[in-house]
Task: structure prediction
Amino acid sequence: MSLTLVIGNKNYSSWSFRPWIAMKVAGIPFEERVIPLYEPGSREEILRYSSAGKVPVLLDGENAIWETIAILEYLAERFPKAELWPREAYARAHARAVAAEMHAGFQALRKACPMNMWLPRKQRPQNEEVIENVRRIGAIWWDCLQRYGGPFLFGATDKISVVTEKIHKLPPVVILRLRNMTAIDATGIAALEELADQLQKSGRAMLVCGARPQPEALMREAGFDRHVGSENICENITVALGRAEAIRKAGLVMATRAREA
Ligand SMILES: N[C@@H](CCC(=O)N[C@@H](CS)C(=O)NCC(=O)O)C(=O)O
Result:
């Protein structure tokens, strides 16, 4: 039986994206029916498919499945080869817990930042509850990436965790050359922030240099400078080496002063 996924506009309905992305990535064939949301007649149109009055709704012949988690569980059962959930029991439970937390939580973030991809990108001050939600999401991703690895971060996570593991062997100033990192996402930023914080805790300084436009813009938006200090974000390696030398000298001066005192 062929599947139809009834969804809202992709610009506003992040819920619709959940099964849509899963089905696309898993290669599950389906037809897509889009209902423009929040327009006269939208509600009546949705109610034709689900009395819950919400999209997405998966239609499998006569059967309608609503609620994203139920849709994904149904797809996982119908298409076991797609391996929508992890194979290993604890990893599966972990993934389900994260999906359930995402499903039920993050109210402050949802309220303050509803999805709208047409909005121009700009810094929007947020309250502490929203920032806490974002921190929690970063922590979830960081934990998942640490445990299971993954393609997020565009390949940068492994390299970063290798650095983190050997932190005590690193010199007092660590320069991260970002020129080969073509793009970064929120998990990547979180990983870099974590690394900067850990280096600082161990008494080391971190410099980054050579960031390309996309990572540079995202780091700026995320307030990455709060973790490393804006003077430690350098345009290129020459500037970074100069800065490293200045830090080293200042460190030596401080050490000498401490000895003299
Ligand atoms: N818990 C539901 C949430 C679905 C939801 O809130 N859908 C929104 C679109 S993002 C909707 O249908 N809104 C239309 C309306 O409320 O009239 C799920 O997981 O599917």
